[in-house]
Amino acid sequence: MTHSIQVKDLKLDFGSVSVLKNLNLDVAEGEFIVLLGPSGCGKSTLLNCLAGLLDITDGEIWIKNKNVTWAEPSDRGIGMVFQSYALYPQMTVRGNLSFGLKNAKVPKDEIDRRIARAAEILQIQPLLDRKPAALSGGQRQRVAIGRALVRDVDVFLFDEPLSNLDAKLRAELRVEIKRLHSRLNNTMIYVTHDQIEALTLADRIAIMRGGIIQQLAAPQEIYNRPVNLFVAGFIGSPAMNFIKGAVVDNGRSIKLGEAKLDLAGYDGGQPTDRPQAILGLRPEHLTIQDHAEPGHTIPAVVELDEPMGADSLVWLMVQGQQVSVRVPFEKRPTKGAQVHLKVDISKASIFDATTELRV
């Protein structure tokens, strides 16, 4: 596998505060990596280190087999798109796209060729002679992407480029960025706090917390097999349900209050007994039914439901804990009803309550 970017034992300290901690990351040629995590986890900081906007404390950064750890941003072969559009208001779109190229003494015919290509890819040809004030937010962000595109680089860095847009525009531009990557096949690293963006755009997602990558894997792997409790709770909307219990019977069952579930078919193999375990269940992997099936169901009481269009999110009480289940709108149960939740144990996750790691 050809690496486009390699981060080796990267550390960044701000005074006595350790922001990035011995971080390693290999990005393949043409790969789309999303850095995802809560505010303050270090995702934008890592992106700024890759761009050369922050000097690291220790470690190495390689881009296209070249050590760029101390190289200037302009010498790293990267194009960056920021959260704010940062367009020059007095210039037209054409002027904004050409400004960096003119400073780099690129010949005029080459500038025209690159602008025409970027405008065609981003569908902004009719906007080239307008100024930013005459553009919508989505159009301005397209121009900001175009400014990176005309640099004709191998690596694009996106720092929450859609966060200033409304939901409809975000959805539209998300499709545009995915189409852009499919057409160009350049390496892209994309920072976001929006898990929908991460799940739909990424070849692989790096979930970050406290300056450390918790899990780096394909979206479905992270969604279905989270490595720890933090990743499981962070990815997914609505969030994964967590029910406290204990693994018993030599790892063949998990006890949840008075109920006991058979663990045959659990995706992690047969676990060992644990007096404190946490069962993780996605809302779509539970089914509400009116009869018990020993070893496969948990008793529950319906609290309320949230209609969400085609389906509803039903909230129930299980052993004193709230659990959500996604059901078709027309099959919503009655509030206060005594029901049973059927568990698809093959889709479940079990975590050790002490280490918080997936069993």
From TrEMBL:
Gene Ontology BP annotations: carbohydrate transport
UniProt cross-references to InterPro entries, sorted A to Z: AAA+_ATPase (IPR003593), ABC_transporter-like_ATP-bd (IPR003439), ABC_transporter-like_CS (IPR017871), ABC_transpr_MalK-like (IPR015855), ABC_transpr_MalK/UgpC-like (IPR047641), Mo/tungstate-bd_C_term_dom (IPR008995), NA-bd_OB-fold (IPR012340), OB_MalK-like (IPR040582)
Ranges where the ABC transporter domain occurs: 5-235
Gene3D superfamilies: 2.40.50.100, Nucleic acid-binding proteins, P-loop containing nucleotide triphosphate hydrolases
Keyword Transmembrane helix attached: no
Tagged with keyword Transport: yes
GO molecular function, one term: ABC-type transporter activity
Keywords: ATP-binding, Nucleotide-binding, Transport
SMART domains (alphabetical): AAA (SM00382)
A single Gene Ontology CC term: ATP-binding cassette (ABC) transporter complex, substrate-binding subunit-containing
Organism superkingdom: Bacteria
Pfam families, per database record: ABC_tran (PF00005), OB_MalK (PF17912)
NCBIfam families per the UniProt record, alphabetical: PRK11650.1
Family, per entry: Belongs to the ABC transporter superfamily.
Protein name as catalogued: Sn-glycerol-3-phosphate ABC transporter ATP-binding protein UgpC
Organism the protein comes from: Stagnihabitans tardus
High-level lineage: Bacteria, Pseudomonadati, Pseudomonadota, Alphaproteobacteria, Rhodobacterales
Gene: ugpC
